[in-house]
Amino acid sequence: MYSPEQLMQMFPLFDRKLAEFIASIAETKTFSEGHIMMKTGQYFKASMLITKGKVKLYREGEDGNEFFMYFLEAGSACALSMICATRNQSSQIMAIAVEETEVIMIPIQYMDVLMTEYKGWYYFVLETYRSRFEELLIVIDNIAFKNMDERLEWYLRNQAKHNKQITLTHQQIANDLSSSREVISRLLKKLENRQMVVLHRNFIEWLEPLH
Amino acid sequence: MYSPEQLMQMFPLFDRKLAEFIASIAETKTFSEGHIMMKTGQYFKASMLITKGKVKLYREGEDGNEFFMYFLEAGSACALSMICATRNQSSQIMAIAVEETEVIMIPIQYMDVLMTEYKGWYYFVLETYRSRFEELLIVIDNIAFKNMDERLEWYLRNQAKHNKQITLTHQQIANDLSSSREVISRLLKKLENRQMVVLHRNFIEWLEPLH
DNA sequence: TTTCAATTGTGATCTTCATCACCGTCCAGG
DNA sequence: CCTGGACGGTGATGAAGATCACAATTGAAA
Would the Cβ of A186 be found within 7 angstroms of any atom in strand D? Predict the structure, then answer.
């Protein structure tokens, strides 16, 4: 499905030997938009490397609340799937494909040989874990130290990274931030006054530079 | 300093071969109470395994705020020191010894051989990372979904795990929870009314069962 | 013993945000 | 074309918690 060259381009930490091995065992799987790729309490039989699309990672509260944490995009891997697959344990996170998403599945039985024979693999695993950890720390910063207006701005900037047209309703944003629609509507209005966004029905236009 | 047997007892995921290797290269280091073991932006030249004592991990906000995340105790390792050592990157967390703490330092140059030759090591690394990750998720649950009274209760339960006498001032607790002293004082008073704690000057007695 | 700084208690007020109530707008399916 | 449900706007009210002001208590140092 993918050549070693393509893999090395998507996953810069892969060396040639590793890319060749992954290419030889890769099985891809496609999830359609809205598909739940991972549910709280689920066990994994494979690690997933994302090759196309975009996945939204949530934390689920006890009372059915959802709390947005981060996106995974092409070139990244699901840290939890890697570790849970290796250690055969369950996850505490929910993942939903926000667009059509393709992943490479690496069955659990290859974990040992990958880890022991391919140095590039464990660099990749560690880097994946480290960067997910950093993202969680940023999430904590946001909810611990910032007000809703700053969190909304950070959230929109995140969403806008790949597309300045953010096709979300105020209600969906409120859910992701664990807030309420009215508050989000009012804050969006303020951002519009500051000329940072233009509001439309069913989508929001982001006017600021993306990085 | 430590025999392989002692190491295997403290770190259950170590197999004999790994414990022997660690024992052969172990250098211990002791940090006195209050010592800052790790600072935001610091680089590591070694992984640290904790053999005695207790370490408090904080997230630092931009404006000097501190936010308590979790403790590390004997038998656990600092996930960040392991990964940052391996990948030679800096951390975003602060660690302070809350009691006299002894650690085994594993210099960076052993990371490769540990990872490739000792299967027990990478299980240990993954498990360390996974459990730290879970703890961060719990922190997020708390600040995203819970009120201050529940968070305070969780915090005290955590502190009391090893000692029912919690020697902290209300101000210190407020800092850890990123709240204010007055709020903490009032909530503590409520807990006292519910007979869950007894308040004293400079320390708090936890009356509930520990687990 | 006196004194001063750290700790704790308490009321008043303010800000942020959640919640409720209600209305207008848009648009897709009948 | 009409109409009901989804979406968005807006004011009023309430609760949680931050902040301010100040008093009371304690304990260690002088």
Answer: yes
Tell me the CB-side half-sphere exposure of residue B185, using CA atoms within 13 A: 7
Q: Is the C-beta of residue B201 closer than 7 Å to nucleic acid chain C?
A: yes
In whole angstroms, what is the distance from residue A43 CA to residue A88 CA? Answer: 7
Per-residue pLDDT, B156: 97
Task: Test A62 with B145 for CB contact under 8 angstroms.
Answer: yes
Residue B29 Cβ < 7 Å to strand C? no
C-alpha dihedral over A97, A102, A108, A109, to 10 degrees?
170
Residue with nearest Cα to nucleotide D17 C1': B183
> Does this model's pTM top 0.85?
yes
CA distance linking residue A207 with residue A164, whole number of Å: 7
Which positions 86-105 of B are in contact with A (Cβ < 8 Å)?
Answer: 86-87, 89, 92-93
Summarised one tens digit per residue, pLDDT across range A16-51 is 999 999 999 999 999 999 999 988 878 788 899 999
Beta bridge partners of A205: A165, A198
User: What are A172-206's pLDDT values in tens digits?
Assistant: 999 999 999 999 999 999 999 999 999 999 999 99
Task: Compute the residue count for chain B.
Answer: 211
C1' of nucleotide D18: residue with nearest CA: B180
Among candidate residues A142, A145, A140, the one with its CA nearest the CA of residue A156: A142
C-alpha count within 13 angstroms, C-beta hemisphere, residue A117: 11
CB A166 within 8 A of CB B84: no
A109: which DSSP letter?
G
Sequence-separated (6 or more) residues with CB below 8 Å from residue A40: A60, A91, A92, A93, A94
Strand D reaches within 7 A of the B193 CB: no
Q: Which residue of B has its CA nearest to A91?
A: B134
Chain D bases near protein Cβ (<7 Å): 6-12, 16-21, 26-27
Which residue reads 């339960």 in tokens? B157
- Which helix (DSSP H) or strand (DSSP E) does residue B139 occupy? helix B119-145
